[in-house]
Specification:
The chain has about 250 residues and is α+β, with helices and mostly antiparallel strands. Helices cover about 30% and strands about 15% of the residues. The two termini are about 25 Å apart.
Length: about 250
């Protein structure tokens, strides 16, 4: 379960902006749970703030409330968003086509989401690093290779995805299925990490900056990268917050 975090007071560095009304063990239609703070724990990777662990007196179980943009056991954020869920932009600008006239110096241009602060950073790094053949077992054993493959699954271009899974991911990312299928073909044909990283970066460039977190949460769940995610925020509706369904969920 995820929720926004805000700066706390006193000994609290950060605290959840909204406390859930139900725990992750509650079923649809159940009454609200009785939740209390069990403890706060530090994380060596992933969220750079202490995360809150809640105890449900109704179900007598504990669970962690992760900051928005993070998932359990994740080392990096899955989307370029802050603790409040708002998109974080980088200082980079969208590349211009060669035929386009140059912008005046005072024109700000279109800002890009800060993808390098997420697990997709490996895709950007691969483009600028020396090409390594994907048949080299030494490269596949690295964490960067795992992140690249995980990113490919989330955006629907990994060759191990089934057709229904890829279709569901395209629907949730709001990218035309044909466009994503062509990207998947290019990813499978790519024989170096730079080539495959470029495919992922190109797909990210088509996402824009609208509802990025929502779409990536749903896509990653469809890809089997994590289970169904429940997010609590001011806009959540219902007693269980907003649920992003996992593998096998219908596309619409």
């Amino acid at each position: 379960m995820t929720a926004g975090y805000v700066p706390g007071s006193g000994s609290e560095a950060f605290k959840p902006a909204v406390m859930p009304r139900s725990c992750v063990y509650a079923s649809m239609g159940n009454e609200a749970c009785v939740l209390v703070v069990h403890h706060v724990r530090e994380r060596k990777t992933g969220p750079q703030i202490p995360v809150t662990v809640l105890w449900c007196r109704t179900h007598r179980r504990a669970f962690t409330l992760y900051p928005i943009g993070h998932v359990p056991y994740g080392r990096r954020a899955i989307a370029p968003v802050g603790l409040d869920g708002e998109v974080v932009f980088s200082t980079e600008r969208e590349p211009r086509e060669p035929r386009e006239p140059p912008e005046p110096p005072e024109a700000p241009g279109k800002r890009l989401p800060a993808w390098r602060m997420t697990l997709f950073e490996s895709a950007f790094a691969a483009i600028h690093e020396q090409t390594v053949k994907l048949t080299d077992p030494r490269w596949w054993a690295t964490e960067a290779a795992e992140q690249l493959a995980r990113g490919a699954a989330i955006v629907g271009v990994h060759p191990d995805l089934s057709v229904p899974e890829a279709d569901a991911i395209a629907f949730r990312l709001e990218i035309p299925r044909l466009v994503l299928r062509q990207a998947a073909d290019a990813y499978e044909r790519g024989r170096g990490r730079a080539a495959r990283g470029r495919v992922i970066v190109d797909v990210l460039g088509q996402l824009g900056d609208r509802c990025l977190l929502d779409r990536l949460l749903a896509a990653g769940a469809c890809a089997g990268c994590w289970g169904a995610v429940t997010r609590w925020d001011a806009a959540s509706s219902g007693a269980r917050g907003r649920v992003f369904p996992g593998r096998g969920a219908p596309a619409g």
